[in-house]
Amino acid sequence: MSEAVETSYGALKVMEEGEFAGWRFWEGDPFETRSGPFFYRREDDGSYVSAFRAEDRHMNGGGSMHGGCMMTFADFALFAIATDALAGDHAVTLNLSGDFLGPIASSALVEARGEVTRGGGKTIFVRGTVTGDGKPALSFSGIIRRLSKR
Question: Which residues form the Thioesterase domain (predicted)?
Answer without folding.
Answer: 62-131
